[in-house]
Predict the structure.
Amino acid sequence: MRIIAVIPAYNEEKRIGETITKIQPLVDGIVVVDDGSTDATFDAAKRTGATVLRHAMNRGQGAGLKTGTEAALRLGADVVVHIDADGQHDPSFIPILVDPIKKGEADVVLGSRFMGLQPEGIPFSRRVLHRAIKTFNSLVMGIPRKLTDPQSGLRAMNANAAQRLDFRQDRMAHCSELLRLITRSDLCWVEVPVKVIYSEDTLAKGNKNLDAVKIAWQLFLGMFSK
Protein backbone atom coordinates (compact mmCIF):
# COMPACT_ATOMS: atom_id res chain seq x y z
CA MET A 1 0.00 0.00 0.00
CA ARG A 2 1.23 3.48 -0.88
CA ILE A 3 0.99 5.63 2.26
CA ILE A 4 1.09 9.42 1.90
CA ALA A 5 1.09 11.81 4.85
CA VAL A 6 -0.68 15.15 4.57
CA ILE A 7 0.62 18.00 6.73
CA PRO A 8 -1.16 21.37 6.83
CA ALA A 9 1.29 24.04 8.01
CA TYR A 10 0.96 27.69 8.99
CA ASN A 11 4.02 29.66 10.13
CA GLU A 12 5.94 26.51 11.09
CA GLU A 13 9.37 27.24 9.62
CA LYS A 14 11.12 26.34 12.91
CA ARG A 15 9.45 22.94 13.31
CA ILE A 16 8.33 21.70 9.89
CA GLY A 17 11.70 20.35 8.80
CA GLU A 18 12.16 18.18 11.88
CA THR A 19 8.54 17.00 11.69
CA ILE A 20 8.93 15.90 8.07
CA THR A 21 12.27 14.19 8.74
CA LYS A 22 10.69 12.07 11.49
CA ILE A 23 7.74 11.09 9.30
CA GLN A 24 9.64 10.28 6.08
CA PRO A 25 10.90 6.79 7.06
CA LEU A 26 7.34 5.70 7.90
CA VAL A 27 5.52 6.68 4.69
CA ASP A 28 5.95 6.58 0.92
CA GLY A 29 5.37 10.27 0.38
CA ILE A 30 4.54 13.54 2.13
CA VAL A 31 2.35 16.42 0.97
CA VAL A 32 2.77 19.67 2.87
CA VAL A 33 0.25 22.46 2.38
CA ASP A 34 1.66 25.85 3.36
CA ASP A 35 -1.53 27.63 4.34
CA GLY A 36 -0.57 31.20 3.49
CA SER A 37 2.35 31.40 5.93
CA THR A 38 4.11 34.73 6.39
CA ASP A 39 7.41 33.07 7.31
CA ALA A 40 9.70 30.62 5.47
CA THR A 41 7.55 27.51 6.03
CA PHE A 42 7.35 26.81 2.29
CA ASP A 43 11.14 26.91 1.79
CA ALA A 44 11.86 24.88 4.94
CA ALA A 45 9.45 22.15 3.82
CA LYS A 46 10.74 22.20 0.24
CA ARG A 47 14.30 21.52 1.41
CA THR A 48 13.22 18.14 2.80
CA GLY A 49 12.14 16.83 -0.59
CA ALA A 50 8.45 16.70 0.31
CA THR A 51 5.77 17.73 -2.15
CA VAL A 52 4.86 21.26 -1.05
CA LEU A 53 1.76 23.19 -2.11
CA ARG A 54 0.85 26.70 -1.06
CA HIS A 55 -2.38 28.61 -0.44
CA ALA A 56 -2.09 32.24 -1.47
CA MET A 57 -3.82 33.25 1.79
CA ASN A 58 -4.48 31.62 5.13
CA ARG A 59 -7.63 29.55 4.78
CA GLY A 60 -7.45 27.30 7.83
CA GLN A 61 -6.33 23.81 8.79
CA GLY A 62 -9.41 22.15 7.32
CA ALA A 63 -8.74 23.75 3.94
CA GLY A 64 -5.12 22.65 4.12
CA LEU A 65 -6.14 19.07 4.78
CA LYS A 66 -8.65 19.16 1.93
CA THR A 67 -6.04 20.43 -0.55
CA GLY A 68 -3.45 17.95 0.71
CA THR A 69 -5.80 14.97 0.65
CA GLU A 70 -6.82 15.68 -2.94
CA ALA A 71 -3.14 15.97 -3.90
CA ALA A 72 -2.27 12.70 -2.11
CA LEU A 73 -5.00 10.87 -4.04
CA ARG A 74 -3.68 12.29 -7.32
CA LEU A 75 -0.24 10.97 -6.33
CA GLY A 76 -1.68 7.47 -6.01
CA ALA A 77 -2.17 7.15 -2.26
CA ASP A 78 -3.81 3.96 -1.03
CA VAL A 79 -3.75 5.34 2.51
CA VAL A 80 -3.83 9.01 3.51
CA VAL A 81 -2.51 10.02 6.93
CA HIS A 82 -3.37 13.41 8.46
CA ILE A 83 -0.77 14.72 10.90
CA ASP A 84 0.03 18.14 12.37
CA ALA A 85 3.09 20.18 11.47
CA ASP A 86 4.10 21.33 14.94
CA GLY A 87 5.52 18.04 16.23
CA GLN A 88 2.78 17.39 18.81
CA HIS A 89 1.88 14.09 17.15
CA ASP A 90 4.36 11.27 17.67
CA PRO A 91 5.07 9.91 14.14
CA SER A 92 6.00 6.49 15.53
CA PHE A 93 2.25 5.84 15.86
CA ILE A 94 1.70 6.06 12.09
CA PRO A 95 2.20 2.28 11.59
CA ILE A 96 -0.35 1.65 14.37
CA LEU A 97 -2.84 3.93 12.60
CA VAL A 98 -2.30 2.28 9.25
CA ASP A 99 -2.29 -1.35 10.44
CA PRO A 100 -6.11 -1.86 10.67
CA ILE A 101 -6.44 -0.46 7.13
CA LYS A 102 -3.72 -2.78 5.81
CA LYS A 103 -5.49 -5.75 7.43
CA GLY A 104 -8.84 -4.74 5.92
CA GLU A 105 -10.33 -4.22 9.38
CA ALA A 106 -11.15 -0.51 8.97
CA ASP A 107 -11.59 2.21 6.37
CA VAL A 108 -10.77 5.01 8.81
CA VAL A 109 -8.57 4.93 11.90
CA LEU A 110 -8.80 7.79 14.41
CA GLY A 111 -5.96 8.49 16.81
CA SER A 112 -7.16 9.12 20.36
CA ARG A 113 -5.25 10.99 23.05
CA PHE A 114 -7.52 9.60 25.75
CA MET A 115 -7.33 5.82 25.30
CA GLY A 116 -4.81 4.83 27.93
CA LEU A 117 -1.93 7.06 26.81
CA GLN A 118 -2.44 10.39 28.54
CA PRO A 119 -1.24 13.48 26.65
CA GLU A 120 2.00 14.90 28.02
CA GLY A 121 1.71 18.45 29.32
CA ILE A 122 -1.99 18.96 28.54
CA PRO A 123 -3.43 21.64 30.86
CA PHE A 124 -6.68 21.17 32.75
CA SER A 125 -8.32 23.95 30.72
CA ARG A 126 -7.64 22.04 27.50
CA ARG A 127 -9.31 18.95 28.94
CA VAL A 128 -12.36 21.08 29.76
CA LEU A 129 -12.39 22.33 26.16
CA HIS A 130 -12.35 18.77 24.83
CA ARG A 131 -15.21 17.75 27.13
CA ALA A 132 -17.27 20.72 25.93
CA ILE A 133 -16.69 19.86 22.28
CA LYS A 134 -17.47 16.19 22.93
CA THR A 135 -20.79 17.14 24.54
CA PHE A 136 -21.65 19.44 21.61
CA ASN A 137 -20.70 16.72 19.13
CA SER A 138 -23.01 14.25 20.84
CA LEU A 139 -26.02 16.49 21.46
CA VAL A 140 -25.98 18.57 18.28
CA MET A 141 -23.95 16.66 15.69
CA GLY A 142 -25.16 13.16 16.60
CA ILE A 143 -21.63 11.84 17.01
CA PRO A 144 -21.53 8.78 19.33
CA ARG A 145 -20.32 9.54 22.85
CA LYS A 146 -18.23 6.35 22.79
CA LEU A 147 -15.82 8.20 20.50
CA THR A 148 -13.18 9.29 22.99
CA ASP A 149 -11.32 12.15 21.25
CA PRO A 150 -13.48 14.93 19.75
CA GLN A 151 -10.63 16.94 18.19
CA SER A 152 -7.84 14.57 17.21
CA GLY A 153 -5.92 15.66 14.12
CA LEU A 154 -4.06 12.36 13.76
CA ARG A 155 -5.98 9.96 11.54
CA ALA A 156 -5.61 7.58 8.60
CA MET A 157 -8.05 6.55 5.88
CA ASN A 158 -8.01 4.40 2.79
CA ALA A 159 -8.39 5.97 -0.63
CA ASN A 160 -12.10 5.12 -0.86
CA ALA A 161 -12.83 6.89 2.43
CA ALA A 162 -10.63 9.86 1.49
CA GLN A 163 -12.62 10.28 -1.74
CA ARG A 164 -15.99 9.97 -0.02
CA LEU A 165 -15.44 12.19 3.01
CA ASP A 166 -16.38 15.53 1.46
CA PHE A 167 -15.73 17.83 4.41
CA ARG A 168 -16.31 21.54 3.85
CA GLN A 169 -15.19 23.28 7.05
CA ASP A 170 -12.02 25.25 6.33
CA ARG A 171 -11.02 26.03 9.90
CA MET A 172 -11.20 24.45 13.36
CA ALA A 173 -14.59 22.82 12.92
CA HIS A 174 -13.31 20.32 10.35
CA CYS A 175 -12.55 17.73 13.05
CA SER A 176 -16.15 17.56 14.24
CA GLU A 177 -17.46 17.66 10.67
CA LEU A 178 -15.22 14.74 9.71
CA LEU A 179 -16.34 12.73 12.73
CA ARG A 180 -19.98 13.35 11.81
CA LEU A 181 -19.41 12.23 8.23
CA ILE A 182 -17.44 9.16 9.31
CA THR A 183 -19.82 7.95 12.02
CA ARG A 184 -22.93 8.50 9.87
CA SER A 185 -21.53 6.63 6.87
CA ASP A 186 -21.18 2.91 6.21
CA LEU A 187 -17.40 3.24 6.51
CA CYS A 188 -15.82 1.02 9.12
CA TRP A 189 -13.92 3.09 11.70
CA VAL A 190 -11.92 2.40 14.83
CA GLU A 191 -9.98 4.43 17.39
CA VAL A 192 -6.45 3.59 18.49
CA PRO A 193 -4.39 5.18 21.27
CA VAL A 194 -1.77 7.71 20.17
CA LYS A 195 0.71 9.91 21.99
CA VAL A 196 0.54 13.69 21.87
CA ILE A 197 3.12 15.95 23.51
CA TYR A 198 2.20 19.53 24.39
CA SER A 199 4.80 22.27 24.76
CA GLU A 200 4.53 25.96 25.63
CA ASP A 201 4.95 26.88 21.95
CA THR A 202 2.28 24.52 20.63
CA LEU A 203 -0.16 25.40 23.41
CA ALA A 204 0.30 29.10 22.66
CA LYS A 205 -0.50 28.50 19.00
CA GLY A 206 -3.25 25.91 19.48
CA ASN A 207 -6.96 26.18 20.21
CA LYS A 208 -8.10 28.30 23.15
CA ASN A 209 -11.10 27.58 25.37
CA LEU A 210 -13.20 30.26 23.64
CA ASP A 211 -12.54 28.49 20.35
CA ALA A 212 -15.20 25.96 21.36
CA VAL A 213 -17.77 28.70 20.73
CA LYS A 214 -16.24 29.45 17.32
CA ILE A 215 -16.27 25.76 16.40
CA ALA A 216 -19.92 25.41 17.41
CA TRP A 217 -20.86 28.50 15.37
CA GLN A 218 -18.97 27.28 12.29
CA LEU A 219 -20.67 23.91 12.51
CA PHE A 220 -24.08 25.52 13.01
CA LEU A 221 -23.64 27.65 9.90
CA GLY A 222 -22.29 24.67 7.96
CA MET A 223 -25.44 22.66 8.65
CA PHE A 224 -27.43 25.23 6.65
CA SER A 225 -24.93 25.72 3.83
CA LYS A 226 -25.34 22.27 2.25
The beta strands are 3-9, 29-35, 51-55, 79-82, 108-112, 155-158, 189-193. Residues 3-223 form a domain with the Spore Coat Polysaccharide Biosynthesis Protein SpsA; Chain A fold (CATH 3.90.550.10). The chain has one domain: 3-223. The chain has a mean pLDDT of 85.
